Amino acid sequence: MVPYLILLLAHQGSLTPPTSAIDVKADGSLVLAGQGANLIILQKPTGSMSWIVRVLALGKSPSRITQIRLSPNGSKAAVALGIPGVEGSLLLLDPTKGSPIGPQITAKHKDLITALAWSADEKRIATGGYDRTILVHTLGSNTLPGKIVDHSDVVTSIEFLPQNRLASTSYDRSVKLFDDQTLVRLQTLADATDWGLFIAVRPSDGLLASVGNDKLIRLYQRGPDKSYSLLKSSFAHSAPILQARFSPDGNTLVTLGEDKFIKRFSLPQLNQVGEPIFFEGMPTRFALSGDGKKAWVSDHLGRVREVLFDSPKSQMGLWPETQPTARIDKKELSPIRPGTPGLLTLHGSDLQSVRISSSIAGLIILPKIATDSVASFEIQAPPSLGGTNPLITIQSGTKTVNTFHAEVDRFARTADDLLRPEQILQGVTVHGLLDKAGQVRVIMLPLKMGTPLGAEVLGTAGKPPKEAGWEPELELRRPDGSLLERGFGKIGTIADTEGLHTLSLRDHQWRGSAGFSYRMDIGPVPVVLGVFPRVVGQSKDPISVGLIGIHLPKVPVVLSPPLTLSQTKPIDLSALPIRAAGKTEVLVSAGGETTDPSKILEPGMAGQSILSGPSKEVRWSFIAKKGQPLFLEAQATRFGSALDPTLSILDPMGRPLIRARLQSVAKTHVTFRDHNSSTPG
């Protein structure tokens, strides 16, 4: 039997992050550890001498796992995941699969979670964090969690005690006890002379152990009145003590220190038991087996070690050197779209330990089956990933054995060239190939007047059309054959008549090739056509603008400072809750812009507005003196607007002025030309 296990995990592009959290099932068959944002699941099947390992990405950098605690019966795992200085959230997972289990906890801390504990009945979870607060969550309840704001510094450890008590310790050097129902503080134990780092409780009688930066173990006993008093204290390590745990039989206290030793002490005498075990790497946390004969230790080198107490060979073995590399002979992937997961099935050998990752954040990959010859994973995509081609990486141990681009469809696939009205409303994804020169794909669309329609052409196998060497041109024609809308790669418009419209797709230069494969989304496709206001003034602060287009969410887009003069600022569409086709930008001017037609324009100012419907007009007022030369210009088409503007100037009485006067003073030739109109005349 190998008494000492080291788990080495590669981290591309940088040093391996530490394994900062760990817990183990009582029978020692399952170990959970956190490394960065990855959840490491180590399983040893019954009767097996080898471990099966899975690594699941629960988030992306800078997210990281800070706490892991299995429920008392081992059926659930509470995993704390957060971003430093931003938030700390709690996930409830199936410990063997890493998939969400039961109703999830929505309440969050304002910083990383640094303390986590289950109640004995598994109905509540207590968390503490850098935000100095304690939250008591009731599972399956829609009520807000109970909140304790009593510590003056980081809450580092928390435990439920017998007889409805909750204990916590903190950098503020105190151990505090609360009623776990009313959350009222009952007692403060202030014996520590430095940071408190960890507390442990013996379930049988509520004996409380406290350790921290002052290198001492303190034992507190519960009196008849349920209050606690110091029973014994003893110097234990030559450096701060990171953690303490009672053995399952309650006769021993196990501690881990920054001096790199794990030690055992008898209770209540606190006499050292056996020889301490020294670690070469800096340990971070440990967990005990149900019989107290083993410990699993995580460290700053990204390893997980299995330790046998009282063993002459307590430091042997290395993983994953003995693990075979998976071989993939065949892979199958069913269609993926938001709301409909896809199933990736791998066939080959040594597939028990393969793990899957995605190049795009937000794609959820859950393991379903893992045997020697078959492994399958469910892939879930949120609405924001519809129409993307994420790169999927398959790894075995530290080796990459396969990569490919998955296709996340926005809508259900169809092979029809004549769509039904309900298909247009719900949206469809059409796949095809333009492999012959001059080839055109034609889709018939029965549209009602006023129906908004979006269409976007996407590449396949991770290659956008431009990378594949072609430029998709779309044309939407009315039932009478007249052109309604034309665009490259995308169109967004509203039908102005009822009947069978024609949507055609071809290469702009009428080329064809075996590489001109495509996916075309038709229906409620979000398409960005413009932005309002189009011109903004200089600003050191963020500015909100609105998007103009088809099927867009009614949320403002924030322009990040600085906004400097004459700068063209592109709009970041990634902040939208859905993926939108198109791009747009604003122009930063010297200022003097307004979107309020009731304001009087002064020379140098620009007024911006939207004509909301047919036969609409917008009137702007300005002050002018007789004989004063003024230049007025209406710009729309050059900014991507469908409007062909006509400008009329009225005098104070509302009478139109002469638009233009040409007076000849010599024999000459004069040519009038259009400057900004999109129509002739």
Structural class category = mainly beta
Radius of gyration from the alpha-carbon trace, in angstroms: 34 Å
- Continuous helix count: 2
Number of strands: 52
User: Whole-number average pLDDT?
Assistant: 85
Helix content: under 10%
Strand content: 35-45%
Backbone shape:
elongated
Distance between the termini: 91 Å
Q: What does this 3D model show about the protein?
A:
By secondary structure, the protein is mostly beta strands. Among the domains are: about 160-235; about 325-405, Sandwich (Immunoglobulin-like), CATH 2.60.40.10; about 430-525, Jelly Rolls, CATH 2.60.120; about 530-625, no CATH class. Helix content is about 0%, strand content about 45%. It is built from 2 helices and 52 strands. The strands form 15 sheets. A 5-stranded mixed beta sheet has the order 34-35-42-37-40. It is elongated, with a radius of gyration of 34 Å. Mean pLDDT is about 85; it is low at about 1-15 and about 315-320.
Quickly describe the structure.
It is built from 2 helices and 52 strands. With 681 residues, the chain is an all-beta fold.
